[in-house]
């Protein structure tokens, strides 16, 4: 009744009802409730961590670019192991492949008890022909086939508890270090592929450019992407949190990353480092002063790996799923 109202309770000092009223307001507000003791809610994070370490997770990456740009070496450098299949020496009659044949290699990588099923898809023969018309069709077909495979498993009446995920979460596109503008092939590929997969452009073998040439080339690529309305990862449209937007803005200023790959270690100042040995010194791959490989590694693995998977599932796969279900419902 009215005797429970704080302002009419004369036997209590005014401070206590104010605290009661404040606690009720906080409990009903968006900020949450103030706990008076330890409940153990934070243990949920430990439960999620233990479950993830037991089951592991999947990550699928695709590398696209002309032959000789160091795609296999870059993947080996990213994961510090021989995870990419080296191209075998082709015979004389097989030196120029007729089509782009995609090759996928799957490995299970374990680091500090965390298992990751890594699938690397290479695209040998892309852009190597005199006539490169529609050379991106096999790549688009492969990406859509993985979406279709996931969709078929998802619409089953009796589904698996965990659907095998073979969808491509990220596509690293290697731009030749010409120092000029993007080629029509590069623009057309990124324009088509950015609509169905997360595309991360990089300047391959950046040690062939001077620092001034690298900065000018990077600025020209950014202008080309903006002029042709090509949205590469991380996309501005998907930034929701202000902190994420600030971080992604700093990343977008650096894209495309000027990278150097190396899978051999050398001795520098008493330490073993990954690098490329030249007559005038050693180019350290993990040194930010030499190249931007650490930025690419942080983007793909350390900071945005889960975001790559989330955008693939919630945006690219969802758009494919809607389109396929509309097609199946047509009379």
Radius of gyration: 26 Å
| Number of structural domains | 1
Count of discrete alpha- or pi-helical segments spanning 4 or more residues: 9
**Shape, please?**
globular
How would you write the strand order of the largest sheet?
2-3-1-4-5-6
Strand content: 15-25%
Summarize the structure.
This protein has helices at 15-28, 43-55, 71-79, 137-154, 184-193, 211-227, 242-254, 293-303, 305-329; strands at 57-64, 103-111, 114-122, 170-175, 199-203, 257-258, 265-268, 271-278, 281-284.
Question: Any overview of this molecule?
Answer:
With 331 residues, the protein is an alpha/beta fold. It has a single domain (44-63, 73-83, 100-121, 138-329), classed as P-loop containing nucleotide triphosphate hydrolases (Rossmann fold), CATH 3.40.50.300. It is 39% helix and 17% strand. It has nine helices and nine strands. The chain has helices at 15-28, 43-55, 71-79, 137-154, 184-193, 211-227, 242-254, 293-303, 305-329; strands at 57-64, 103-111, 114-122, 170-175, 199-203, 257-258, 265-268, 271-278, 281-284. The N and C termini lie far apart (64 Å). The relative contact order is 0.11. Keywords: Cell cycle, Cell division, Cytoplasm, Cytoskeleton, GTP-binding, Nucleotide-binding. Residues 1-21 are annotated as: Disordered. One of its GO terms (biological process) is cell division.
């Amino acid at each position: 009744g009215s005797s429970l109202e704080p302002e009419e309770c004369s036997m209590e000092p005014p401070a206590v009802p104010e605290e009661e009223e404040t606690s009720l307001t906080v409990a009903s507000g968006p900020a949450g409730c103030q706990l008076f003791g330890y409940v153990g809610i934070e243990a949920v994070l430990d439960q999620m961590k233990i479950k993830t370490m037991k089951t592991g997770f999947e990550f699928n990456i695709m590398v696209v670019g002309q032959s000789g740009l160091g795609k296999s070496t870059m993947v080996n450098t990213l994961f510090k192991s021989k995870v990419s299949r080296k191209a075998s020496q082709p015979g004389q009659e097989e030196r120029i492949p007729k089509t782009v044949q995609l090759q996928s290699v799957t490995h299970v990588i374990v680091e500090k008890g965390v298992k990751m099923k890594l699938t690397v898809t290479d695209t040998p023969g892309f852009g190597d022909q005199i006539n490169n018309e529609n050379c991106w069709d096999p790549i688009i077909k492969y990406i859509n086939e993985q979406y279709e495979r996931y969709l078929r498993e998802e619409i089953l009446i009796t589904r698996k508890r965990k659907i095998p995920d073979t969808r491509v979460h990220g596509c690293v596109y290697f731009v030749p270090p010409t120092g000029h503008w993007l080629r029509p092939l590069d623009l057309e590929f990124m324009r088509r592929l950015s609509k169905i997969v997360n595309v991360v452009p990089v300047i391959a073998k950046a040690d062939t450019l001077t620092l001034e040439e690298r900065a000018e080339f990077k600025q020209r690529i950014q202008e080309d992407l903006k002029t042709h309305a090509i949205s590469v990862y991380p996309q501005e449209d998907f930034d929701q949190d202000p902190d994420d937007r600030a971080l992604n803005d700093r990343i977008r200023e650096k894209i495309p990353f000027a990278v150097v790959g190396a899978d051999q270690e050398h001795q520098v100042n008493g330490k073993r480092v990954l690098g490329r040995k030249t007559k005038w010194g050693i180019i350290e791959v993990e040194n930010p002063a030499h190249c931007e490989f650490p930025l690419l590694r942080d983007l793909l693995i350390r900071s945005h790996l889960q975001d790559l998977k989330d955008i693939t599932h919630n945006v690219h796969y969802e758009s494919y799923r809607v389109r396929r279900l509309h097609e199946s419902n047509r009379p």
